[in-house]
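Appendix B, record 7
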Amino acid sequence: MLRPLPESITVDNGGEFAGRALDEVVFKEVLKFCFRDSSCGRAEDLLDPHIIRCQQRSEYLDEAVSLWQESVCWQEWHKKLGGTQRFKHYTVYFDDAGSLNVVASTCEIGTQNIEP
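Structure tokens (predicted):
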């Protein structure tokens, strides 16, 4: 039985994250990404800087997955990996700088997979 994904994952900068650089956030199987400057960002992308939001449904995700389906999803090995169901829409907010939207199969911080 699959459990639902949380709407967000809180990163408390505790001992497991202390001193880690942002370049240790790893997205796998990226289909689409976009950085939005905070001056032109959307209200729903203004998150606490300690949160990485994970969504299973969004227009951004639907658009990326639709293009992916048309080009390669029909291949049997993609179906064995979970097809379109493995992709999620992640949003990372960077204080006043802006936010990063990513459609990917997983997101990891260092060696920890933040996927539920």
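Remarks on this record: Helices lie at 59-71, 76-80. The longest strand covers residues 88-94.
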